[in-house]
Amino acid sequence: MNIRQNTDLIKLSNATLAALPGDIARPTYDRSALTAGIVHIGLGNFHRGHQAWYLHSLMQKGLAHDWAIVGAGVRAGDAAQRERLAAQDYLTTLIALDPAGSTAEVVGSMIDFVPVEESNGALIAQMADPAIRIVALTVTEGGYYLDPATKGFNAAHPDILHDAKTPDMPVTAFGAMIAALKKRRAAGVGPFTCLCCDNLQGNGAILRQTVVSLARLSDPDLADWINDNASFPNSMVDCIVPATGPNELALVRSLGIDDACPVTHETFRQWVIEDDFCAGRPDWDLVGATFTDDVHDFEAMKIRVLNGGHQIIANAGELLSIETISGCMANDDIRALFEKVATREILPHLKAVPGMEPHAYVDLISRRFSNTRIVDTTRRVAFDGSSRHPGFLIPSIQDGLAAGTPVAGLALVEAIWARMCAGLREDGSAIAPNDPDWDALQAMAQEARENPVLWLKQAKYYGTLGQEARFADAFAAWLDMLWTKGTTATIRAYLAVAG
């Protein structure tokens, strides 16, 4: 990949694809002949660097031209993303960053973006189109209206109450999906596959729970029809895709391309999908995806080691004013914390999957986190800990307590999160709000400085873990040490423990 200086930029569009520099790969298929088959809700960087790339790669083989993606969003802020992408014909420059070398390509599998409307009428109409056979989502782990402690459906949330009362004018993605499925049933059209692409173990089952439970609040017969006829495959997605900021925009311009929303990503990608599609699917396995009837073991390994590992290092990095994930891994203490906790306290509860055993996976994640070309910020990774800790770390604590395996390192990780939520780094600088529940978390973190047990009484995150003495006592000791001796000294105290 050649870096160009002082070059007139080429505005990315269908009309300029042929004019792009020769080392930039681009669609070889006729984009004007593509037709839509997928609506994707929550069209951020990860989707464009992952699922859209798999479909694009299939299209490059002359396949799946009737499966093009229509983007969608249900938040007011999604309108700006739609405008940026529409201005460049929904094309995206993907830049793969690796210490061994980088490449760039333009991906063209997306052909439209539904207008963002308060009542989601355009989105409902698009999903009701019989040509749409898959509706996929990346709406973050916290977007499924779950009770953090029980993982059950939160029927009392104001958004859910709104959609239950006015199902024809929904404010949630799930309400819009239900309204579209209702139209399809009335028209004699079969349902679409509902495909979750978020980092939730059993994500298809969780999506089914949310959609069917919400539908049942207003139309029990429709809920039964959806449950009996739609499909909700579980899946596991993996690729580190940082947010786009000034550095990424400068990088794409250095290639000679004017792209308002480029995506940088690591060279590693993985997509494991349960083969349960009620209305057909693209042959993503021809370009590297894995179809299997047993996604669970893949999910558990990835969510607990990679996503859980991200929380292990990012919270500590925030306290020590380390700005990036690779910078966290360059800190010997944080790196050792990740590797010891993952090996001693997470791996005992994981199974090998085809092509990868757990210890080798920890080594792989350690290398991926250490990629200095990926500028992934600790702030981005540490965001929404109130969803990510219950989803990524607490299951390992529960398994460790049940099996009698060590949990002291995980107790330290939770104490570091509590210390971080107090909102002050060790250098005295403030941590800006970084969680949907930040105010409540910060208030509790400050109270827990004097009485650590209060933190674990947040049952919506910890359930009954505060009553488990082996975990609670370790947590209290670590939190006290973090406040009195600091993050580095506390991590080193854990690392010094034999084993």
UniProtKB/TrEMBL annotation:
* PANTHER family per UniProt: MANNITOL DEHYDROGENASE 2-RELATED, MANNITOL DEHYDROGENASE DSF1-RELATED
Question: What are the UniProt keywords, alphabetically?
Answer: Oxidoreductase
Mannitol dehydrogenase N-terminal domain residues: 37-285
Name of protein: Mannitol 2-dehydrogenase
- What InterPro entries does UniProt report for this protein, alphabetically? 6-PGluconate_DH-like_C_sf, 6PGD_dom2, Mannitol_DH, Mannitol_DH/Oxidoreductase, Mannitol_DH_C, Mannitol_DH_N, NAD(P)-bd_dom_sf
Q: What Pfam family does this protein match (any one)?
A: Mannitol_dh
Q: Does the keyword Oxidoreductase apply?
A: yes
Q: Does the keyword tRNA-binding apply?
A: no
List the molecular function annotations (GO) for this entry: oxidoreductase activity, acting on the CH-OH group of donors, NAD or NADP as acceptor
Q: Which residues form the Mannitol dehydrogenase C-terminal domain?
A: 294-482
